[in-house]
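pls design
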């Protein structure tokens, strides 16, 4: 698993599970199965989202892709796409396409009922608006905010090695630091609101943390939180964004730098 995929697993804290649904786009033609496999591989997609409205799902769940393949469904010459060894129904999954989450079945020209073509982007904006934003965690004595989609990634405002304060991003990684390659600092490029910034990644004890690699990058990250309502981080090789609210950041930054 490459470093970006490992980061995504740690940050989102996702687990993979499957449930039996009404089969709309699970058993499909071999041509359609190959098209689905090719989409994931050529677009370098490592995360899909599961949302089964007919089953009662309200919010989508991130699914990390570790292995993907196609297999004979052993039914009337039909085939299946498997993710992490389990056949999935494309009708209830979404893939990132041009900054939007598109229904997987529709993305490979399979018509399905009851499922929208795209996930509602308004739901993300609603999460941003409803989020607590930046606040002082009195127990940990830190200024923090949580990523609004999964909450597994935390942004922390603190003192680093640069002239100004720094925003650090971190997540709990109970098993992530067992990999010796992660125990050495590494340079990881990520987009911050569509601008590419180099980050240093470090795994220590049970915490994975990353922060801007240079003072210029650090100042750019600060500026994004100071002058925007939303800050999005996106891995260089992926489509999935980590979304943070900037609510309350400016006031707390000014308070921290004047006291």
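designed seq:
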């Amino acid at each position: 698993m490459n470093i970006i995929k490992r980061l995504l697993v740690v940050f989102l804290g996702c687990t993979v599970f499957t449930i039996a649904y009404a089969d709309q786009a699970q058993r499909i033609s071999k041509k359609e199965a190959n098209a689905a496999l090719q989409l994931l591989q050529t677009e370098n997609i490592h995360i899909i989202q599961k949302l089964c409205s007919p089953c009662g799902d309200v919010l989508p769940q991130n699914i990390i892709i570790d292995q993907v393949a196609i297999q004979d469904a052993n039914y009337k010459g039909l085939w299946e796409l498997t993710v992490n060894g389990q056949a999935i129904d494309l009708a209830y999954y979404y893939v990132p396409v041009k900054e939007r989450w598109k229904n997987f079945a529709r993305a490979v020209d399979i018509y399905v009922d009851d499922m929208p073509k795209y996930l509602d982007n308004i739901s993300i904006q609603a999460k941003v608006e409803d989020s607590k934003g930046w606040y002082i965690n009195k127990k940990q004595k830190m200024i923090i905010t949580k990523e609004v989609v999964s909450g597994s990634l935390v942004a922390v405002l603190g003192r680093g090695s640069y002239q100004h304060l720094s925003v650090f991003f971190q997540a709990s990684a109970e098993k992530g630091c067992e990999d010796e390659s992660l125990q050495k600092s590494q340079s990881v490029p990520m987009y911050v609101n569509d601008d590419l910034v180099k980050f240093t990644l470090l795994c220590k004890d049970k915490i994975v943390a990353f922060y801007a690699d240079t003072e210029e990058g650090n100042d750019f990250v600060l500026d994004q939180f100071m002058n925007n309502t939303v800050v999005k981080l996106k891995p260089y090789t992926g489509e999935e964004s980590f979304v943070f609210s900037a609510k309350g950041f400016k006031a707390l930054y000014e308070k921290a730098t004047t006291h």
